[in-house]
Amino acid sequence: MKHIYNTVLLLVSLIAVVSCQPVVKQQSQEPKSETDHYLDTVQLQTINYFWKEADKTLSGLAPERVHMDNIYPQNDSNVITTGGSGFGLMALVTGIERGFINPQAGLERFERIVSFLEKADRFHGAWPHWMDGNTGKVVPFSKNDDGGDLVETAFLIQGLLTVQAYYKDGSQREQELVNRIQKLWEEVEWSWYTQGKEVLYWHWSPNNGWKMNFAVGGYNECLIMYVLAASSPTYPISPEVYHKGWARNETLASNAEMYGIPTVVDYYQHNEAKIGPLFWAHYSYLGLNPFKISDRYADYGTLTTNHAKIHLAYAIDNPKNFKGYSDQMWGLTSSYSMRGYAGHRPGNDLGVIAPTAALSSMPYTPDNSIKMLVNLYENHKDLIGEYGPYDAFSLNDNWMLPRYLAIDQGPIPVMIENYRTGLLWDLFMTNTEVQHGLKRLGFTIKE
User: Fold this and answer.
1) 39 Cβ partners below 8 Å, 6+ apart?
2) Edge-to-edge strands, sheet with 79-81
3) Where does residue 4 rank: exposed (0-12), middle (13-18), buried (19+ CB within 10 A)?
4) Under a CB-based contact definition with an 8 Å cutoff, are residues 86 and 156 in contact?
5) 2-445: what CATH class?
6) pLDDT in tens, 74-104
7) Which residues pair with 261 in a beta bridge?
8) Per residue in 156-182, is it b (16+ CB within 10 Å) or e — as a string?
């Protein structure tokens, strides 16, 4: 009986994709394990968010959110997200490789996306956080955030370079796509976003200038921005920007521990907290393989694995005695909550679990991430919808909303695929400009 629900979900998801476009090709008939069936199911469902929902605007890019209850905080039916779309590009590559998306239809989607990005609003090469999916015009993310967003742009470029690597040895048509992506990559003025200082700034707006004044330093989700900025063939930052800005004058390393597990880096300056939300172990590492890189501050495979293990240990310890926390129900990250969007982590725990936290940690904690996956699909079917597990829930408060966020759904199929085959890591890490940039910053790239 265990396979019946799984099979129904898989068929429903396949039908959903087919109803969007006839793009599903024949799946392998080789028998699969129960775990593989669950992995296939959640990958297909989450990929479908980026295939089906992204087809509703001219852009082909991902909507910021999808509320199955049709209750939205604002009229944002056409709002697409830059960073979440970068994750979605990698999800679509996974879908093609898994046989969920016909290769021809996948290529057409990528061409459509690149055509949109070529004409969309950019600010010294950086796209805004939000855009109108039909016009490409900036949609303000907040009062002063109506210009370039370098972090979201980095997430998008990470996805574009992965697509580029996927097609680099392809047909003439595919080579044209590769060249168009290269041009978009070369047009991002990373060094301009330093303001001539030794740190990268997150935002700039022609209306508000540098008013947001967000210098990105100290460990968080933004490592990929510094790596890409150092790798740029046209507007590279100097290594000093990384070591003095990101690494805060080379003070990033830490001897701190939680649950006897080294944190490796100083997650928060001034001892605000010892550990960050789990998305920090995901966003920069969808393409950047943490197990292949180290520098003077960290071995990044150890760093990300320990990050996930600390969250797991916290759930097992469950110091606030929240209902449901265990080694098969765990994971704190930024997500929806009873109090709106919140940054959940040890030290700021509201009893809200976000499935993306544990599922996207599968390369780091495979056994317990799979336990979480199986537990959800076997015992908590009400927490799962058309596009996979809903964004967040609280068993303690009997709270759940049937809603999705692109930035949470995107890492799930990508990191699961990296666990299964290393596909996205292998593609992104072949980029010779990225390899050069890592070496400029003092990284060792492992074979």
Assistant:
1) 370, 373, 416, 420
2) 79-81, 130-132, 138-139
3) exposed
4) yes
5) mainly alpha
6) 657 789 999 999 999 999 999 999 999 999 9
7) 258
8) bbbbbbbbbbbbbeeeeebeebbebbb
